[in-house]
Amino acid sequence: MGYQNEAMNTRDRLIGAMIDLVRQKGYDAVRVEDVCAAAGVSKGAFFHYFKSKQEIAEIAADTWRDNSCGLFASMGFVQGDDRDASARDKLLRYVDFRISLIEGSKEIYEFCCYAGTLVQEVHATHPDLNDRAAAGIINHVAQLEPICVEALADAGRDVAEAPALARYFQTVMQGALLMAKAYRTPDAAIFSLRQFKTHLALLFDGSRPKPEEPSP
Amino acid sequence: MGYQNEAMNTRDRLIGAMIDLVRQKGYDAVRVEDVCAAAGVSKGAFFHYFKSKQEIAEIAADTWRDNSCGLFASMGFVQGDDRDASARDKLLRYVDFRISLIEGSKEIYEFCCYAGTLVQEVHATHPDLNDRAAAGIINHVAQLEPICVEALADAGRDVAEAPALARYFQTVMQGALLMAKAYRTPDAAIFSLRQFKTHLALLFDGSRPKPEEPSP
DNA sequence: CCCATAATACCGACCAGTCGGTATCATGCT
DNA sequence: AGCATGATACCGACTGGTCGGTATTATGGG
Predict the structure, then answer these.
(1) Total structural domains in chain A?
(2) Contact between A145 and A166 (Cβ < 8 Å)
(3) For the whole model, what pTM was predicted?
């Protein structure tokens, strides 16, 4: 889940390093020299490509949004292999996917949300940056909404609550990540996401989710 | 919801100012001179009572925890007026209470969680501070757990999921606050909490919550 | 007088951003 | 090819302001 590698050009390595470091330490605690060191370049290179620390953070927010958007779109939830799966299944599988991302990480920052981390920290101090980061979150909610509409319709529920349900996805994801930090273990996030699955199953089926993967 | 007033002594005013400012701007962005100005004292007074910025943040975390704990305990959820209310009702009413707190606030920071804000920001950079803040969150989860046990038992559900459910409360609360920041409106948090109520009602009743207060 | 409380002046580390410079590569002219 | 021209990429010493923390001094109650 590293956001940079050798093959990238300098600019992209800097952006990738920025994303990784902010997810680890937060915006303010990251020094531009840290970013340079992580990308293996000098301060001169940094300010050649970006006019300020805030600018790279904003551009990184766009990158994050595009990557999240692309990842989600490419994994068959919107279209693709699971084109024929029910909306209900898509949503539950998506939660499973997020759980698997957490389980596959060694460090908490690896599954942290760049956008969520930023929003929490810079909401009042850097309004422009906050809004760029928030766009990633809002964008993802918009992606989920049509699937929620379909799933609610299939379940015979009021479609009008789809926007709230889509937002609720992000609410739980972001809250789960915070809990992982509070408890200092990814398990705290996983527990919350499993609880969320129970909610979804009740909402769509009026019952528990079928145990596709047994809980350890 | 201001955390300091004229009548308090210098030390408590400083702690209250710290809490308010951190909830507005985050830990790093708050300068000790800001805290002094908000409390109406000088730097000399600040360092007379606290040996460092981190120390006041840690002590403020304890204050926050104790106040949250006390508030929760004093409002009849654990004991008191609603001693005879069902656990199910206590939990739903608690969510309503949190919603009312948000509705009664003009600024987002007024209903923000000092502990949650800190945990997000200082998780990796200030481990000790993180843990002191996290204690408030974990403590609150522990308060909710016995009520969850009771509510689940009453509903004929598996009591073993009570710890996960109690944690889920915090997950949703914290996530909802982040969403309010992302959308720049308290409504985003309220929507999520209402969705959460739906979840709880399904879990306990297998149906929608009775509309005690009509949704606007 | 003494101690707690508080104010002011000051220090020094830290860090975003600057700036003068070099290296590399593309282009076009002869 | 050879060379001038210039653009892009990159370097790292330096600066100027910020801010946590300290040293020193003032005040006032017991």
Answers:
(1) 1
(2) yes
(3) 0.90
